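Revision sheet: structure tokens.
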Amino acid sequence: MIVLHYTAMATPEAALERLCDPAAEVSAHYLICPKGRVWHLVDEAARAWHAGAGQWGDVTDVNSRSVGIELANTGAEPFPEPQMAALEGLMAGIMARWDIAPARVIAHSDMAPARKGDPGPRFDWRRLARQGLSVWPEIGAGGGATPAQFDRDAARFGYVRAEGVSDADILRAFRLRFRPCGTGPLAPQDCAMMADLAARFAVDRAAPSA
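Predicted:
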């Protein structure tokens, strides 16, 4: 998989220093600054400590099954064009080298919905999807959908209702990525979008868990 993050630090240099500090016990394969510079910090075949506790589908050790990309951003600002262009070029190469499907590109908040919010509501997932680097739902009618059906569809897509993860956490993570303007209780549009994701991009439950 590929997991996308933001650094939530004041400068790219501060993030680079932390990612290279053994005492911090955190690392990522790549860091991209707002001007588009890419730092390659960990070999893609090696395990980096970027994901932490969480799960996507049946994968419980995401660090061992993913490439982590950190985007230098506080989380409260847009992602600049040079940074997005550099990310897209980097992702295309990684996905080709490791045969990663677009549905296996996720947000940190997807696999840890109770504790993470990155890369956040300002990140343009639809832009990635238009280039075949991620997925985006087609909006259906959503008539008659229930919270229980939303939960089932969320699980089929990859969101895991693990210990400490609530229905509200999953709805929040889903909206951060696919409907950042959404607020309030579960809405028919949420249900329709999740149903489409589950139908077209169901997570591979046959894949071995790490």
